[in-house]
Amino acid sequence: MDSTRACTAVSSQKSCWLVSNLDSWNEMLYAISYELVEYRPGKLSLRYLKEKPVDRRPMTSAQQAAYMISWLIERHACIEELRFLSSVLPDNPTLPGVGAPIRLRPPPEQSDLHNIRRLELRTCLPGSNGVTTCCYLPEEDLLTLCGLESIRVACADSKHEPGLVKVLHRNSDSLRIVDITQPMLSQDMVEALQCLSKSESVALSFCRQQGESGSGTDALTRLVQTLPSVKAFRFYSLTVQAWNVCGVADALRKNENLTTLELYMFRVSSSLKDLFAALEVNTSLKELRIAFRTVDASCGDALGSAISNNACLLYLGLSGQIADYCMARLAVALSQNATLEKLHFSGSSLGFNGILALCDTLRTNKTLKEVVLPHFPAGDSESNA
């Protein structure tokens, strides 16, 4: 193992010597819970092994990991992906035993770090998941990243958010995949997301939103309306506030580029029938997954009409308590639909009459290839039916 050789990936056509020496390097990296993987020809991913226990003292391991990661990133342009675990810093990060900083320093001849294309950062609170201390990424190092194409961040608190917002602004012309999980959706974050001119996939997950009630729904509506390049939106919220989906439905009605929409909002203040009405006229959506507490009987006609008339949807996933009337209307619609291929009920509460109506439709539907039902108790007579 030669630690003095320079990276030979001077162009996209040439591979670095490190690619053919991964086994010897990984023998050392495994000791600090990391590994190097060739995730595409000639390009490496430096990844945290969350299942790998560390034999050394936590602080010693963190210091060694931070040094080795910093050294590799600075010297090897062939490493395009960085996936690592970071400590959540206390208010005074200089306290002993907190963690060790990862220094993302560009080569001496560059002002920015251009080789990292994909960043995955997961933060943990001290003591969680058996982790007492680990590496952390200072904001000034995070801001050296330029030309990012993919960023996935799962934060245990909001301390990383100011730096993350700056990174989104700094890489707004290059980011294509954005996946952010954090406790709160702030207005600063929403404004940064609205600047992503080339983003193709946006996933947001949070527990609460900043500001007045409904601001989360407004944020999603604004993003669907102002990011025409996005083809996939995934929105997961555990907020205690109820959501009004009318704005989201209106955005879906007007959007002609969106192909995947996932909505996990378990408290809603309005009926889902507006969302189903928008699905009826939408001409681009291929996959729709929605999880709500209840899909009540008032939605039945809108759901049935949407599935009867929509000619592009290939996958429909429903989760929640679904009334028998809705299932009956869906069953009738499926006998007329000629495009839907997969129908999933995940974690749903379905009445047996609704399941029977759906099964009857399967005799006439010609396009459905996969139907997944939740577990439900059934006797011999019910199973035969």
Automatic annotation (TrEMBL):
Protein name: Ran gtpase-activating protein
InterPro entries tied to this protein: LRR_dom_sf
Domain of life: Eukaryota
Lineage: Eukaryota, Metazoa, Ecdysozoa, Arthropoda, Chelicerata
PANTHER family: C-TERMINAL OF ROC (COR) DOMAIN-CONTAINING PROTEIN, PROTEIN TORNADO 1
Organism of derivation: Amblyomma americanum (Lone star tick)
